[in-house]
Amino acid sequence: MIPSNQFRKEKDTLGEIHVPSNAYYGSQTRRAFENFQISGRKLPRSFIKAQGIIKASAALVNMEVGKLPQNIAQAIITAAEEVTKGQWDDHFVVDVYQAGAGTSQNMNANEIIANRATELLGGSIDHSLNTFRVHPNDHVNMAQSTNDTFPAALNMAAVENINQRLLPAISDLQQELQNKSNQFMHILKTGRTHLHDAVPMRLGQEFSGYAGTIESMYAQIEATVDPLYEIGLGGNAIGTPINTHPDYPQKVILEISNRTNYPFRSPANLFSFMQNRNAPIRTMMALKELAVHLIKITSDLRLLSSGPRTGLAEITLPSVQPGSTIMPGKVNPAILEMVHMVCCQIIGYEAAIATAGMSAQLEINVMMPLIAYTLLDAIDILANAVSTLVTKCITGIQANEEVCKNWMEASLALVTGLSPSMGYDLTAQIGMQADVENKTLNQVLQELGLMSDEVKKAIDPNRMV
Length: 465
Known about the structure:
The protein contains 18 helices and six strands. It has 465 residues and is mainly alpha-helical. It has three domains: 7-142, Fumarase/aspartase (N-terminal domain) (Fumarase C, Chain B, domain 1, Orthogonal Bundle), CATH 1.10.275.10; 147-402, Fumarase C, Chain A, domain 2; 411-464, Ribonucleotide Reductase Protein R1, domain 1, CATH 1.10.40. Keywords: Lyase. It holds the Pfam family FumaraseC_C.
């Protein structure tokens, strides 16, 4: 971290301010640091990396179109690439909850890159010692605005994190659930609706439902990535390409695509891109839906593994840690509980992004820092939670076949197989009698003289599934 016992003086449009002497950021970042001591949270590495890519690409294109001298451009490119690699992360100090639209974050990047570029050209980060310096606005921010670069960086970071982390984790979860479905397909058990006994099914069929749900969510989240490829660089402050070379927008997006290997493109309507955060809002809605389904699946697994002596106990979860400080030997479904907590956070995050999305006014959305932090954190914790769910829980699930068999044979819902031949009313009476007298369905049918080969076939669970 940067020691702050020594300072240098810097000037901006508001006057003088003291900046830590070895800080690569400058006056505007320092003002933001002092103004917004809110959470201690910073925008993540993936966002800073995207900022570095944008600044390097912009410098290269501005040089190619003759707007930026070659020596300055090359220094900016080198400094920005160092930012991309994480070399100056400690100097990104602005809180997530900052001035609207993310101007402070953009200036944090501009100032770091400008000072580092000045240093690369033989100057000093102490401006009083220089006859010339690379300027954060005039040079590093050339042809740019916070209003086009900040949402572009958000989309770029989201694309990388979804493609490289979240989608692979979801794919692994789907595959492992399908593996369990195949492994458990021979096991008969009672189904349950309203948490009460229902007709028989296979344990593998139950798990196939989970696998199918996750498969559909993979496709849905994958589909949300495409709109994120739209980055409105060249839209500048409000969508008009003021202070940019006519070739800049197309060239800078092409350069970013080359650097990231992703097919970024200009939006169909730059003004819409500047006004709204459509793609992040849509992406967050899909993440919320995934969270809802994960809560259902993990809640089911907690129920199915409940016990081990006084619950359903149809499956056994791998033990990962002791579950009680007072009850020796107790083991809880810790991984499933963790996933449930993460999903609760995701649902809250979606509400935050929806509310921030509604706060767009006229030409921009000033809530962009909140949207960026929330979406990127949601992707990150979901990817971590899903990966942990696979490796520390799903892979190690075992079926308790004898328990499944016992519950199924005790289920009065088997009487459903008699309904086509005996009618709903009579079969209901048979089921109720078995329940009241605490007898099995077979016992009641024998006592009523209704048992026959045809009846045995009708209530055979193998035929029902």
